[in-house]
Design brief:
Oligomer: heterotetramer
Distance between the termini of chain C: 85 Å
Largest sheet of chain C: 5 strands, mixed
CATH superfamily of the largest domain in chain C: NADH-ubiquinone oxidoreductase 51kDa subunit
Strand content of chain B: 15-25%
Largest interface: C-D, 56 and 38 residues
Distance between the termini of chain B: 31 Å
CATH topology of the largest domain in chain C: Rossmann fold
Number of strands of chain B: 7
Low-confidence stretches of chain C: none
Strand order of the largest sheet of chain C: 2-1-3-4-5
Mean pLDDT of chain C: 93
Number of domains of chain C: 4
Mean pLDDT of chain B: 90
CATH class of the largest domain in chain C: Alpha Beta
Structural class of chain C: alpha/beta
Radius of gyration of chain C: 26 Å
Chains: A alpha+beta, B alpha/beta, C alpha/beta, D alpha+beta
């Protein structure tokens, strides 16, 4: 694999040519927010929080899906990028019903964290307050559409890591919903292995273990890289 | 803000719209810092003081709660007209929070569900029409009704967070909360 | 089939057509069919049968003739007279027309005649639509008789793929789908891209409301599109093409399917095209109602049977498209330009149009204009000429207000810019885009914030939902416009609105989201005072909006007013 | 087909699936595309044409035939506006809401139809007689405003003409109209025109 050099915020850095910008930026210790990106599954480029300015490109590019290129010059925290990230967060908070005070992931939520990090202290947009339901038909997990940000982490992990593809997205636009099977109650979906990966990778309180009360649902997704590295490097073939 | 700089006492008010008063409880949890606060400020209006009219001139008003009915609208309008700085105090004022969970229902359905047809109740008819303040169709965070100058998130905001914001305001400085004090919820 | 056989086929068909004393061409395009063309065609066929004129009179169902609002249309070709076009033809009138023209001393009727020298026809220049309305789209022979597949034969025999790409580059042709990327460059990229297989896709997912150029081309001259695709396949090294037809266009799909079958049977498509070593298959894919599938990466997802969600670029389709292979995607109209360029030479083509926008462009002229229909004009013509000369101006004594181009990705152009030449760059400077060619004229009864709301609603419904700025941004912008048009907006909403527009343009994943704010921004640019009237004075100057709501702070007074009126109502009842 | 897949559906349902002749049409399309997963949209088109709408059994059948996850099929079917998961009415009325029609006040037609029959776009009357829908431009802008009743394109409509035509169509028996949609409705007896 060849090595390329590029500038990130005017610092000269080198990277492997198969790397994506996000990885290189984070390697430099630069904190750049993401919500749909998840180490271990394919990238979507949907949350647009990791947008960066690349000199010579008229468009802002999502760092998670942009391959590095020799001689690139990248800026990660220009005034407009920070402003846009904040607005995107505001849009997400306005879309469904994110009432932190009564949420199972209060205090452990990536959406809540990014909002605080980016300084979103209020939302200028109208709260859309859609009437959405909650699927508690599964024996162990609950899916609350009101807290979903449609990042599709659960869909990707179910397909790419677990291989069940129980989850997908139905509809489109703001009417999109995470579905289980043929949009049947989750508990009735025979393809679900109840592995719980979707719950662990969900950045908000949309997926949680039954029985969790306010602030009790902590997520972890470090196991993903463990599983995937193990598979890829055949570490478990003893 | 000139008064603040010249060392006069800040004319201070707190108001309570559609909320649980938890933010005010948290304000009282400032404990001994309350003494410091009221050495620098006069409390001109507050649910914890028995004052009926919102005063003519206020420097800083903290507003707890979301705007949920016509009385809130009227008070919000007065607060804005008569205060130099208006602060959204706590998640209900900032986001609508729990108060706004009713937005998914039509007002009339909500009233029927809770009052007119609630279990174990006598049907009460169109209660409150003209007596209780009418509910507005959608609960709104304060800044969607009037201009707001600063925001203190939290449900309720931590006393330290409140103190951070209030002491900045008493010094005529803008509210710049640290990241750990900016969390909703 | 080889080249001499192709020429012979054309010759035979020309002789056959010449043998008729009179040819009656009836438009059988969707608009004319909806206004009763079927009955007209039946009446004419009946007439020929009754009068036993089978050897003298030929009745042909053709594609679109242009002035769709004047349909059903009938064109008459006689050996001794100039071609004439009749409008609003009824079955009775059709018989009279046939009677007059098929007579030993043919003459034209005086009524329902559309003069050939009227500005509607005179100001147009037909390159892509040169066969449209003159040939039977269901018969391959008709296309071949007008030189069809000659360009393909020529390219296969006389030109290398490099030369074909060069010719297209030299012609200056730019993508007709809207963005205007140079077609030759795109072809060359795909040609050079390494890949074991390559694909060509014709984008016929014409989703812009108010536009039907692609439908008409596919319906009226399907072989023209297929020939362009085959030449592209040869130029880039692809053996498989897909033509993605919008689900709303069943007639276009049927005619294309028929055309592919005919061409394959005659060896003009399929294995060993025209006895060369080049093979090219074309399959049809029917869309299922998603505007976003006009975006090329979304379209590819849809061709592969998936949810039509766009994916981030790079990689571009030219490097990694269908199944990861290099893929050329062009609009149907772009492919319609290929055969004429190869036939007449790149220089001939480059001489039409303006410096940076070459050739002609098809527009669907619609809205409040006297004659609506499909027109093809040289690039650089002014909007005024299109609307007032070709279209005949604004009916009902009303005033022109704006012309909307580019559909939900475009903008509204006001009267002061009517003399702007129509080309890619001028329209972009005005805050609109060429787009695929929808041109909707609005008179002074249209309210611009309301028009902006219409387009935003469209984008909101069509957003795929993959990226946040588009998914939520369109909803929020629609809400804001709703507030403006119902009277509940505040001056602050204007700031939020403008800021959100810019943010969406810069941060959305694909063209749909990036261009969704365009109609709004362009109306803000030219009609800001209308927005201000809605917000500050709570009035709608065009008288369209209801304005029956109030801003949040005034809701209290409003509620009291309403509750008073309802109590008094209940007292009465 | 794997054992797991067989267990998904009770055998009774599979039998029922095979006896319905309309599945033959779906099978034909499946074969034409060699059961390739890419052909999902084409297969859904055929299925909708044959059945009038896509119900769960039909989507399960297609998912199994193409070896695709059920959620995938459902995701695709709901992404595209063309596919309907609900049975459609005996007659369908589609009002074009393209720009040209909009400028010529198609919204008033929809409002009138809505008032007259008490259904919003996307809904079907309680008696199953009429489904109302809107379209994103039917490409007949020259005739704006345009509506389509039972696949027949009608141009230059007004609210009044629209209502009159709809009343007429509803009064005529189903056999003469609704060629594609109303597959769930038994052909009614009535005078042949």
């Amino acid at each position: 694999m060849s090595v390329v050099t590029l500038h990130i915020n005017d610092e000269l850095v080198s990277a492997r040519s198969d790397q994506k910008l996000l990885e290189v930026i984070r390697e430099q210790g630069i904190d750049i927010p993401t919500l749909c990106h998840l180490e271990g599954v394919s990238d979507l480029g949907g949350c647009r929080l990791c947008l960066v300015e690349v000199q010579g490109s008229s468009k802002l590019l999502a760092a998670c899906v942009t391959p590095v290129q020799e001689g690139m010059s990248v800026y990660t925290h220009s005034e407009r990028l920070v402003r846009y990230r904040r607005m995107i967060l505001e849009l997400l908070l306005s879309e469904r019903t994110h009432t932190c005070a009564v949420c199972v992931t209060n205090g452990h939520c990536e959406l809540q964290y990014e909002a605080a990090e980016l300084g979103v202290d209020h939302v200028r947009y109208e709260y859309l307050a859609p009437q959405l339901h909650l699927d508690a038909s599964h024996a162990r997990f609950t899916l609350d559409h009101n807290r979903c940000i449609l990042c599709q982490r659960c869909v990707r992990v179910c397909d790419e890591v677990e291989g069940a593809h129980t989850l997908d997205i139905m509809g489109r636009g703001a009417n999109g919903r995470v579905i289980t099977g043929l949009n049947r109650p989750w508990g009735e979906c025979v393809s679900c292995t109840s592995c719980g990966k979707c719950v662990q990778v969900c950045p908000t309180g949309a997926l949680f273990f039954k029985g969790s009360s306010v602030g009790e649902m902590e997520k972890r997704h470090a196991f993903l890289s463990w599983i995937l590295n193990g598979r890829e490097r055949k570490e478990w073939q003893w | 803000m000139t008064q603040l700089v010249t060392g006069k006492k800040t004319r201070f008010a707190t108001a309570w719209l559609g909320g649980c008063s938890g933010c005010h409880m948290s304000l009282l949890d400032l404990d001994e810092r309350l003494i410091e606060l009221f050495q620098a400020a006069d409390l001109l209006y507050s649910p914890i003081a028995d004052i009926k009219e919102f005063p003519r001139q206020v420097d800083v008003t903290l507003v707890e709660g979301a705007v949920a009915n016509v009385d809130h609208l009227e008070l919000a309008r007065q607060i804005r007209e008569r205060s130099h700085i208006v602060v959204s105090f706590g998640d209900c004022a900032v986001t609508g929070n729990v108060t706004s969970l009713r937005n998914r229902l039509e007002v009339d359905d909500l009233l029927s569900m809770v009052y007119r047809e609630g279990p174990g109740r006598e049907p009460r008819g169109r209660e409150g029409d003209g007596i209780l303040p009418a509910l507005i169709p959608r609960v709104l965070p304060l800044h969607q009704v009037i201009a707001v100058d600063a925001f203190i998130p939290g449900c309720p905001p931590d006393p330290d967070t409140i103190w951070e914001a209030v002491s900045a305001l008493l010094h005529g400085a803008p509210v710049r909360l640290k990241q750990e004090m900016r969390y909703f919820g | 089939m080889n080249r001499p056989e192709l020429q012979a086929m054309g010759e035979r068909e020309r002789e056959r057509q010449q043998s008729y004393r009179c040819r009656l061409l009836c438009c059988a395009s969707t608009p004319c069919l909806s206004s009763g063309a079927t009955a007209v065609i039946e009446a004419l066929k009946q007439f020929v049968k009754e009068q036993e004129l089978d050897a003298d009179v030929l009745v042909t169902a053709t594609g679109c003739m242009g002035p769709c609002s004047r349909g059903p249309l009938v064109t008459v070709q006689t050996r001794d007279l100039e071609d004439v076009v009749y409008e609003h033809v009824t079955p009775e009138l059709a018989r009279d027309i046939a009677l007059a023209h098929a007579a030993p001393e043919p003459r034209a009727l005086e009524r329902n005649l559309l003069a050939a020298d009227s500005p509607f026809f005179a100001k147009q220049k037909k390159v892509v639509l040169s066969n449209s309305g003159l040939i039977d789209p269901e018969r391959l022979e008709c296309y071949v008789a007008r030189g069809g597949y000659g360009a393909l034969a020529n390219a296969l025999r006389e030109m290398t793929p490099v030369e074909v790409c060069e010719a297209i580059t030299r012609s200056g042709l730019r993508g007709r789908g809207g963005a205007g990327y140079p077609t030759g460059l795109k072809w060359d990229l795909v040609r050079k891209a390494p890949g074991t297989r390559k694909f060509v896709i014709a984008n016929g997912d014409e989703g812009d409301p108010g536009a039907y150029m692609d439908r008409t081309l596919m319906e009226s001259d399907p072989h023209r599109v297929l020939e362009g695709m085959a030449i592209a396949g040869y130029a880039v090294g692809a053996e498989q093409g897909y033509i993605y037809v919008r689900g709303e266009y069943p007639i276009a799909a049927k005619r294309l399917e028929n055309a592919i079958r005919m061409a394959e049977r005659r060896g003009l498509l399929g294995g060993r095209v025209l006895d060369s070593s080049f093979s090219f298959r074309i399959d049809i894919r029917i869309g299922a109602g998603a505007f976003v599938c006009g975006e090329e990466t979304a379209l590819m997802a849809s061709v592969m049977g998936r949810r039509g969600q766009p994916s981030p670029r790079p990689p571009y389709p030219a490097q990694s498209g269908l199944w990861g292979m290099p893929t050329l995607i062009n609009n149907v109209e772009t492919f319609g330009n290929i055969a004429p360029i190869i036939d007449n030479g790149a220089e001939w083509y480059a001489a039409i149009g303006t410096d940076k926008s070459k050739g002609t462009k098809i527009f669907a002229l619609a809205g409040t204009v006297a004659t609506t229909g499909l027109i093809e004009v040289p690039m650089g013509i002014s909007l005024r000429e299109i609307i007032f000369d070709i279209g005949g101006g604004i009916p009902n004594g009303r005033a022109f207000k704006a012309a909307q181009t580019g559909g939900p990705s475009g903008g509204c152009i006001p009267a002061e810019h009517l003399d702007t030449p129509v080309d890619y760059d001028s329209l972009r400077r005005l805050g609109s885009i060429m787009g695929s060619g929808g041109l909707v004229v609005m008179d002074d009864t249209s309210c611009m914030p309301d028009v902006a709301k219409f387009f935003m609603e469209f984008c909101m419904d069509e957003s795929c939902g993959k990226c946040v700025p588009c998914r939520v941004g369109t909803v929020q912008l629609h809400r804001l416009l709703e507030h403006i048009t119902n009277g509940s907006a505040t001056p602050r909403d204007m700031e939020t609105l403008e800021e959100l527009c810019v943010m969406m343009q810069e941060t959305s994943l694909c063209g749909l989201g990036q261009s969704a704010p365009n109609p709004l921004l362009s109306t803000l640019r030219y009609f800001r005072e209308e927005y201000q009237a809605h917000i500050l004075e709570r009035t709608c100057p065009a008288g369209k909006c209801t304005m029956d709501h109030v801003p949040p702070l005034e809701q209290g007074a409003e509620l009291q007013r309403r509750s008073r009126s309802t109590t008094s109502d209940s007292e009465v009842s | 087909m794997s054992i797991a897949n067989k267990q998904k559906n009770p055998p009774a349902k599979v039998e029922e699936v095979r006896t319905d002749p309309r599945y033959k049409l779906v099978d034909r399309t499946l074969k034409r595309f060699h059961y390739q997963q890419d052909a999902l949209i084409e297969v859904l088109h055929t299925a909708q044409e044959a059945f009038g709408f896509l119900d769960d059994d039909l989507m399960i059948y297609i998912a199994r035939a193409l070896k695709l996850p059920q959620s995938w099929v459902y995701g695709v079917a709901t992404f595209y506006h063309f596919f309907s998961l609900e049975p459609q009415g005996e007659h369908t009325c589609v009002v074009c809401m393209g720009t040209a029609c909009y400028v010529k006040r198609a919204a008033e037609i929809i409002a009138t139809v809505q008032d007259e029959f008490g259904i919003a776009p996307g809904e079907t009357t309680a008696d199953g007689k009429l489904s109302l829908a809107t379209a994103r431009c039917l490409g007949s802008c020259g005739l704006a405003p345009v509506m389509v009743i039972d696949n027949q394109v009608l141009g230059k409509e007004t609210p009044d003409t629209a209502i009159t035509q709809l009343r007429e169509v509803i009064a005529t028996p189903a056999a003469t109209a609704a060629t594609s949609a109303a597959t769930t409705v038994e052909p009614q007896e009535g005078p042949q025109p």
